[in-house]
Amino acid sequence: MTGLLSSKALTGLFILALFFSLYVARSFFLPIIIAFLLNLLLAPFVRSLKKIGVNEKLTAAFIVIALLEGVTFSVLTLAEPASQWMQKSPILLQQAERKLFPLKKAIEEVEKKAEEVEDLTKADSKNNSIEVEQGSRLRNILFTSTWGLLTNLVFIFLLLYFFLCLWRLIFT
């Protein structure tokens, strides 16, 4: 009975460790998983063209180029509305702030009451302060994550090409 219980506990710990490891290595495994899923989606198309007599490598290259063109077209199509939205965002934020101003007063009152309760429950009279760093602005976040996104896309498309070319070796 205790052996069965310890076996289940070890299995649970192993599963937790596995998920944690996958979470930590997600920047490596996520492009591989996406390329593999795209391969599963597009491999029947490659096989059907192989039966007709079209070379697998040519078909895989055609599919990858078509996907790249689709992604490029999507980005170019969304670039203009996104830039317009970024230009309008200060105005929209001011409007939102105006609409939320009554809520801001209520939150300030709650904060004052919370400070009073904290002062009452403080064990020592030292003034412990915590500094909070301000987060990056939206543009900085977008520009720093763009290179990571681009490298992941290149990695996905290269893997997809090799998966599509080598589908027989992988799945048989």
Describe this structure in words.
By secondary structure, the protein is an all-alpha fold. It has 5 helices and no strands. The longest helix is centred in the middle third of the chain and has 66 residues. The radius of gyration is 27 Å and the shape is flat. The two termini are 42 Å apart.
Summed up:
87% of the residues lie in helices and 0% in strands.
Q: Helical segment tally? A: 5
Instruction: Report strand %.
Output: under 5%
Poorly predicted tracts of residues: none
Mean pLDDT: 81
- Sheet with the most strands, sense and barrel status: none
Query: How is the quaternary structure best described?
Result: single chain
SSE order in H/E notation? HHHHH
Tell me the structural class: mainly alpha
Summarize the amount of helix as a percent range: over 70%
- Head-to-tail CA distance between termini: 42 Å
Shape: flat
